[in-house]
Amino acid sequence: MDIIRIILSILLPPLGVFLQVGLGKHFWINVILTLLGYIPGIIHAIYIIVTR
Predicted confidence band at 52 (pLDDT cuts at 50, 70, 90)? Predict the structure, then answer.
């Protein structure tokens, strides 16, 4: 299941974080990072998925 989340995180980072933690603070942090730059959003999303 983590592989699917990682693939979704590459395509749309907030979706991968949402599937992992829901609508918590990490989701909103990821939305902001994705809006500021696509790559930081991907890095944060993969970090959240791998560490949880």
Answer: confident
Give the tokens for residue 23: 């609508």
Buried b (16+ CB within 10 A) or exposed e, 41-50: bbebbbebbe
| Distance from chain centroid for Cα 11 | 10
Instruction: Answer for the pair 25, 16: CB distance below 8 angstroms, yes or no.
Output: no
This prediction has a pTM of 0.89
* pLDDT band of 11, cuts 50, 70, 90: very high
Helices (H), 1-52: 2-11, 13-21, 25-36, 38-51
